[in-house]
Design a protein that fits this description.
This protein is mainly α. The chain has a single domain, classed as Four Helix Bundle (Hemerythrin (Met), subunit A). It has 5 helices and 2 strands. The chain has a two-stranded antiparallel ribbon with strand order 1-2. It is globular. Pfam families: DinB_2. InterPro entries: DinB-like, DinB/YfiT-like. This is DinB family protein. It comes from Pontibacter toksunensis.
Length: 173
């Protein structure tokens, strides 16, 4: 895991232009980005879709990290998913292009984290408890709940990605 000055992101201090109540969400997303980049450095593309013991593949986790973060941010803005987001959801776990490259999937996730940070910077603290619906069923939540879940769900999949990537490198490579 990359650490600046030997510290994880949350111990490096407040982020500029980030609302104080959203600092932990931003810290978690930045930590996830750093960990994914470090973990996936020199990862062999041929191992992306391996599923040791039937668990989700590295490729799935990379697609899901980007996709679910985008979906939760969409709900936090009070919007419905786009057709593009729905199509991406349907293809998570598959390689839609002729050739999927690990570094391309990592870059898509990094770009989504940048978008998330920009949205966090423009989220007013008085909006945090505004109600939001999740999914087609419009399950009740609020802006803060969606943003916190985006961070914790991201970190959960980074942990799963970390284990799967290590296992496939050792057992399949």
């Amino acid at each position: 895991m990359m650490k600046e000055n030997g510290r994880e992101v949350w111990l490096r201090g407040p982020l500029p232009d980030m609302p104080p109540l959203l600092q932990p969400v931003a810290h978690a997303l930045l930590q996830a980005r750093e960990e994914v980049k470090a973990l996936m450095q020199n990862f062999p593309d041929r191992l992306l879709w391996e599923r040791p013991a039937g668990v989700a593949s590295v490729g799935f986790h990379l697609q899901h990290l980007q996709g679910v973060l985008g979906r939760l941010l969409t709900y936090a803005r009070g919007q419905s998913l786009t057709q593009e987001q729905l199509e991406a959801l349907a293809t998570e776990g598959k390689c839609p292009e002729a050739q999927c490259r690990a570094q391309d999937l990592v870059q898509k996730f990094c770009n989504q984290v940048d978008k998330a940070l920009e949205q966090l910077r423009h989220t007013e603290e008085q909006e945090l408890l505004e109600p939001r619906g999740v999914g087609r069923a419009q399950i009740p939540s609020n802006v803060l709940g969606l943003l916190v879940h985006a961070a914790e769900h991201t970190m959960r999949h980074v942990g799963q990605l970390s284990v799967t990537a290590r296992v496939v490198r050792v057992t399949v490579a």
